[in-house]
Write a structure and sequence with these properties.
The protein has 6 helices and 12 strands. The protein is of the alpha/beta class and 319 residues long. The chain has a domain of 102 residues: Immunoglobulin-like (Sandwich). The strands form 3 sheets. It has a 6-stranded antiparallel β-sheet. The protein has a 4-stranded parallel β-sheet with strand order 1-2-3-4. Strand 6 and strand 7 form a beta hairpin. It starts with 21 loop residues before the first helix and ends in an 8-residue tail after the last strand. The model has no long low-confidence stretch (mean pLDDT 93).
Length: 319
């Protein structure tokens, strides 16, 4: 879409004096228009790494006509953050918080694609910092962050089994890794996370609007803990992500409503090769105001752990 992309020297100009490739832009608009006329349910995704506006807006509203755009900024920030040592992540807190500022400007896909696991870039598990076990904890945490962040999801084959070998087009995936308990547990975790995502409408129904997202605590850089709400109507999920290896036995977090809450997914569960340090999955909200909310719950939060918490439905019947 630029006449001078990758070109040094005197820039080319279009007939209006700008550097936009007007013919290329018109081609993309025409392409998307024809595709959706013939195949209304097609997916047309743009891998666009600049701040070009209105990529996923309709052509008749000045857009390029794609219905999805890869969120390259989110991907780069996330991978940069997960590679940091846990004690220094406090200095890069905005790597996680910044993406929400523009998350609803386009219809985004959150990609961990093949581009990031080739040519010496390392696989996702190998990018993560820490010991061998901590790499798996980080990978589970990053997967939960991706799945609970607004936007559709893309993950390249091999990520689900925590493959250490980079992708090679001429070789199969390392399925033998599933014979190792820690890899098999990670595969099981990804499966559970995917099923939970499909089940909980709060995680995907309001992906393109602030109506589906609310920060609980956005500023806890000292502990590198992030907490937020995903919601859709009356459905809501509270997400807590601890990106350090420090455990907190009495961590209090604000919740939007009184009542009973339960952990519906814990990345540190023993089934997923975790420590199993959380013995209680059920919590009653206390009338203690916190994080701008009138109620809060006190939980145990292990290190390098992500939790998805949901309010229990009341059994009381209206008369």
């Amino acid at each position: 879409m630029q006449l001078n992309f990758g070109i040094d020297g005197t820039p080319f100009r279009n007939q209006f004096g700008g550097t936009d490739d007007l013919n290329g832009i018109d081609f993309l608009k025409e392409l998307n228009t024809v595709i959706f006329e013939r195949y209304p349910f097609a997916m047309m995704a743009a891998e666009e790494s600049t701040a070009w506006p209105l990529v996923t807006y309709p052509v008749d509203k000045g857009g390029l006509g794609f219905n999805f755009k890869w969120n390259m900024g989110w991907m780069n920030d996330t991978l940069s953050y997960i590679s940091k040592n846990t004690f220094e992540r406090r200095y890069f807190h905005d790597k996680i918080t910044f993406s929400i500022h523009y998350a609803f400007s386009e219809n985004f896909i959150l990609p961990f694609s093949h581009d990031e696991v080739v040519h010496g870039k390392k696989t996702l598990i190998d990018k993560a910092s820490g010991t061998y076990e901590e790499k798996f904890q980080n990978l589970k945490l990053m997967a939960m962050y991706q799945m609970t962040h607004p936007g559709k999801k893309l993950s390249f084959m091999g990520n689900e089994i925590a493959q250490f070998m980079e992708w090679r087009y001429y070789e199969a995936m390392e399925w033998f890794l599933l014979g190792y308990p820690i890899h098999e547990a990670h595969h099981r975790y990804v499966k559970n996370l995917n099923h939970l995502y499909m089940k909980e409408k709060a995680l995907w129904k309001k992906d393109n609007t602030w109506e589906g997202f609310q920060w609980i605590d956005v500023d806890n850089s000292d502990q590198s803990i992030y907490s937020y709400i995903r919601k859709s109507g009356k459905d809501l999920c509270v997400v807590v992500l601890n990106f350090t290896n420090q455990q907190y036995d009495q961590y209090r977090i604000g919740v939007p409503e009184p009542g009973s809450y339960e952990i519906i997914l814990n990345s540190d569960n023993k089934d997923f090769y975790g420590t199993g340090n959380i013995e209680n999955n059920d919590y009653e909200a206390d009338p203690i105001g916190l994080h701008g909310m009138k109620n809060s719950v006190e939980i145990r939060l292990p290190g390098l752990t992500g939790l998805i918490i949901k309010k229990k439905k009341s059994n009381k019947k209206r008369r």
